[in-house]
Structures are given as C-alpha cells and as structure tokens.
Amino acid sequence: MEIAFLVEKLLLVTILFVATLTVAAYSTYAERKVAAFLQDRVGPNRAGPFGLLQPLADGGKMFFKEEIIPSGSNKWLFIAGPSLALLVSFLGTAVIPFGQNIELFGRVIPLQVTDINVGILYIFGVVSLGVYGIMIGGWASNNKYSLMGAIRGASQNISYEIAMGLSIIALLLVSNTLSFKELAEQQHGWHWNIIYQPLGFLIFLVCAFAETNRMPFDLPECETELIGGYNTEYSAFKMGAYMFAEYINMFVSSAVMVTIYFGGYNYPGMDLVNGALGATWGPLVGVAVMFLKIFAFIFFFMWVRWTVPRFRYDQLMDLGWKVLIPLAIANIVITAIVITVVDKL
Amino acid sequence: MSLFYLVAFLSILFSLLVIFTKNPVYSVLYLIATFFTFTIHYILLNAQFLAVVNFIVYMGAIMVLFLFVLMLMNLNKETEPMKSNVLKIVGVIAGGTLLVTLIGAIKAMQTTAVSTTTNTQIGLVGNLGKVLFSEFLLPFEISSILLLSAMVGAVLLAKKDKRTQNG
Amino acid sequence: MESLSGRKKVLEQKPMNFWERIYLPAIFRGMGITFMHMFKKKETTFYPEQEREFSENWRGMHSLKRDENGKERCTACGLCALSCPAEAITMISAEREKGEEHLYREEKYAAVYEINMLRCIFCGLCEEACPKEAIYLDGPIVPADYLRKDFIYGKDKLVEMPISELEALKGATV
C-alpha cells in the first residue's frame, strides 16, 4: 500500500460522499419541483434564484427544530434507527463504477472505490440491511403506527428481495460475472443489458421501487393509514436522516440500475470521443453520461411517485409473490434455454 | 492476525450478550452483530462468496424475520412468564451435557498441521460453483429438494381451506 | 328494489382483462398525462407581489362609513349588534355635544364600537340590518396577529378615513 494509492482512494471516497450528499439534497428540491410541474404549479422559488437554496433552507430548518424523544420509547434504539438507515444507504456507492479508468498526473485511476468480485451480491446485502433502520426505528418509537410501518417495511422488503434476486440471476446468466466493473465493460458502446433482459429489467425496476419504499409501494410510511408509519414519532434531524436515507437509496438504486442494465458510463460512439479527447477527458465524458442516466432515473422515480396511487397492502403482496416471482423464474428459464440454444448453434 | 483476534473477541462478546440480555429484541440485535463478525471472518479467510451470502441470508433475511416476529409478540419484562426452578435445573443439565460433549470432542480431535492451500482464489464464486455442481452435486440437489419440500409444506399450511372459508 | 326516479344506474363490474390486470398500460397512460402537464400553464399566483381580485360579493373586514361631508353615519342604534349571530359586535353610545356636528351626522353616536374579529363569521347580517348604511364588509382580509386582544377592532381601525386625510395621503404619495 503506497501513499499515493491511499490518497487516491481517500479522495475518491470524499468526492463520492460529497457528490452523494449533494445529489440527495438536490433530489429533495427536484422532487418538489417535479411534483409542482406535474401539478401545474411552480414549486419552491423563493430561496435563491429558482429556489436553488431550498435544500439549505430545509436543512437549516431540520437542524433548528425541537428534538423530541418520546418518553415511552427505547432511547438508544430510537437514535440508532435513523443513524443505521443513513449509514446503510451510503454503503452502496462503494462498488459502483462511475467511469472508465482515468489518467491523472501520470497515474491510471479507476473511478470506483473498490471492485470486489461479488459486487452485485454486496449491493444486494446492503439493500437487505436497509430495512433494519426502519424496523428498529419503528419498534423503538413505542407507537402502534410506527410498529405497523416497521412491520410493513420488513415484510415488503423481504418479499421483493426475492423477485429482485431472481431477476438478477437471469442477468448473471447473460453476463457471467458478479463484478460491477466487468459488467460495465461488457456493455461497451450500445451493448446494454436492457436489450437482452427487458423483462428482467422491468421486474428489477418494480422491486427497486419497493425496496426504496417509493411511491406506489410506500406503505411503510403511508400517511393515510399510518399517519407517518415508521417515522411518526420522529422530528427534527432524525426525521431528516430518514428522509435523506430515502433519497440516497434512490440515488444508489438508480446508479445500480444504470450500471447493470443501461450500460453505466457507456454510450454509443464512446470510442470516437475517447480517441478525440484522450485518456483524461474521455472518461470524464463517460462520468457525465453516467450521471445523466442516473438523473433520468431519479426523475423517473419522482414522475412515477406523482402519477401512480399507492397500492393496497394485499395487492402489494399479491404482486410480489404471485406475479413478480413466477415471472422472474420464467425469465430465468427462458434466458437459460436461449443461452443454451445459442451456444449449441 | 491481530485483526482476527479482535473480530474473534467481538464475536464471542456479542454471542454472550445474545444470551445474557433480558430483552429478546436486544438479543436479536446482538445476534445480528454476531453474524456480522462472522461475515468479517469469512472475508479474512478470503471466502468472499460465503461472506456475502452469510450477509444476505442471515443478516438480511432470517434475522429480519426473527425481529419481525419478536416485535409482534410484545415481549417485555412485565409479560415475561416466571420460569420454574425445574426448568432452570433442566436447562443447566442440558447445557452441561453439551459442554462435556464438546470438550470430549475437542480432546479426541487429533491436531493435524493446519492445511494451507496456495490457491487463494478457492473461495471465489466461480470456483465454489464448479465444486458445488460437480463434486458435491448430489448433496446440493438433495438439500434443494429439502428446502422445496419445506416450502410446499409452508404453502399448504398457509393456504385457506375453501370449505370452512365459504361455509 | 325498483328505482323510484328511474334514473338508477347499476354499476357493472366486469372482471379485468389481461391488459388491465398487468397494470402497465394504464400506468404508462397515466404517466403520459402527468408528463403533458409539465408543459401546461402554471396556475400559481405569486401572492405578496401579485394579488388575486376579490369577487363582487366578497365580504371582508368591516368599515364604518362617513357621509359625503365626512361625518360618521353610525347612530349607535345597536341593530347590528342585535342581528349579529356570533355576538361579535358591542358598542357604547353617547350624545352629540355642541360643536361636534361636523363629526357625527345624528344626535347620537357610538363612542365605542368594537368588533371581535375572532367571533365574526363575516355573514354580512350587520350590513343588512343597518338602517343608516353605516357599516359595510368591503375591506380586505383581516390580518393575522399573535394576541387575542389584538383581534378586537375598535373605532380606530374600523372607521373610514376622513376625506380630507385621504386626499392628503393621496397628495403625499403622488
């Protein structure tokens, strides 16, 4: 371990951390703007030009609000819940490649914090941990609504994890690797996995909505039935932490979907661009493309939220167990048969 | 090596806490921490696949279900049933027997030289898969049938009885 | 049961067909609709800078009127207080002294006239009851405040400005 390597990784982690925070903060702003535009309104526009300082104002508000810890709650776990939710949501970014190797100051630097060869499974594990924040927070609040929210969150996450895993298995049959870096490199140019796995992508997308507790599946915090679900008792920055965790989750799942299905930093004609711009600026264009795709997905998340009404709880479970899982299994079988036939030919 | 000792110490500490805490929800949380230290052990052994699977299956799914059930049961100190002395004595005897058996097993075990492999890639997904689907194919398939039968049983239990339902 | 009006419609619930059951076409159509709304005209009124016009029959804050010579019209008959369903109006009457003829139109006037804006329901019955056309609910929205006592509006807030002052004010601003 040389010093340069450590410095390089430290810088990358810092940049990634700040970028994630910024994206999450501006996602809250974007959410309100998108909601407003879809409803013929203008959205926040008072704090700064076009309301661009709104996230700062919101953050300030969160900081200065009164911190309430209910007397009947379990104090340690009450604090641990949102902390865990925030912590776990950050972990996902570690394995996502944000660009090709870049040449800086005579060194080749990979734009990925770490390329472990079970990257997809790692993401999967981190996602499955995300539910603990909700569960612990909901239980520690000592409130029926919070507990209901926590339990809904847990059962929903477990149910949709299965379909998600099955849809990934079909993808792995095509790609033959669990490493994100290799996955991204396989999709060079326009060979995106979405072409080979449209059904798998659809299943993954629906599950991603469920795993991030976003709108059609936001039953854990369903206002109409559970007031606020698991974060009923939360106020001030702990509430903010939950909200932030949700937006970071959205960012991470968008990044994952872009990387494994939409080619990550690849775009048609990238060889030409890389040839023209060299090894420093070429990959940066890739990074920009990657973020563009991520933002498109985040917009999609919001667009769906402000269009589709919430599912009923039994519909949610029916969709997960009776539709998505059989569909995912069928997808695996079809993919396997096609691959075998193609190999034989 | 020092990292191993730290993690080993933590796993023993957490597993003891699982037993000694009164609150069952805390017990489960400590159990999760214990499993997390196991994951670190696997990583130290360069068994990445096992580590991640342990992480997903035990920490991410099974423990969530445990926690799920315990949260629904509303177990706190007031509702905890009084355990009779007979139960305590039975527990001590059973635990003691297990301890004696373990000690006997360890004493009987021959200490061979630690087998070291030069292949550091043995724990990776590809190699593991190859071994699993060639050498250990039969046990693998049998265990999958076992799981399938368990699943069918669960579905049967959960299925509504049409006659009593419509009455 | 037979429908008496003959207009009863029996709702037919057909089982959903395949395309309806997979939700997706309906979801995509809905998303198309919401997307088109992004480009529609925004309905927002930017309030403090831009105010919406009140409707013609708007009833807002009360004002006690003066006649064309700038004398207060109110004669403290108490009909408004009597008609008020919310009991929001109280007043104390006084007799007009010599030399006050330019202030009050009638021999009797309201020395104190108070409306509790927290009680008032802005029904406009006081306006209708007034025989002297002295009270009208033609003002703006009653502003918010912090203390209950500040919502009891006395004559200082209710009586219309005298014409001379109004003109002076106009002159100052122009």
Structure description:
The complex is a heterotrimer of chains A (345), B (167) and C (174). Chain A is built from 12 helices and 2 strands. With 345 residues, chain A is mostly helical. Chain A starts with a helix and ends with a helix. Helices cover 76% and strands 0% of the residues of chain B. Chain B has helices spanning 2-20, 24-44, 48-73, 85-108, 125-134, 137-158, 162-166. Chain C has a domain at 63-168: Alpha-Beta Plaits (2-Layer Sandwich). Chain C has helices at residues 18-21, 24-37, 79-83, 125-129, 155-158, 163-173, and strands spanning 63-64, 89-95, 108-116, 135-136, 152-153. The A-B interface holds A 77, 116-118, 121-122, 124-125, 127-129, 131-132, 135-136, 139, 147, 150-151, 154-155, 157-158, 161, 178 and B 25, 29, 32, 48-49, 52-53, 55-56, 59-61, 64-65, 67-68, 71-72, 124-125.
Structural class of chain A: mainly alpha
Strand order of the largest sheet of chain A: 1-2
Residue-averaged pLDDT of chain B: 81
Number of discrete helical segments of chain A? 12
The topology string of helices and strands of chain B comes to HHHHHHH
Content of β-strand of chain A? under 5%
Largest interface, with Cβ-Cβ < 8 Å? A-B, 25 and 20 residues
CATH topology of the largest domain in chain B: Four Helix Bundle (Hemerythrin (Met), subunit A)
Look at the structure and give the CATH class of the largest domain in chain B.
Mainly Alpha
SSE run of chain A: HHHEEHHHHHHHHH
Describe the global form of chain B.
extended
Unreliable stretches covering 5 or more consecutive residues of chain B: none
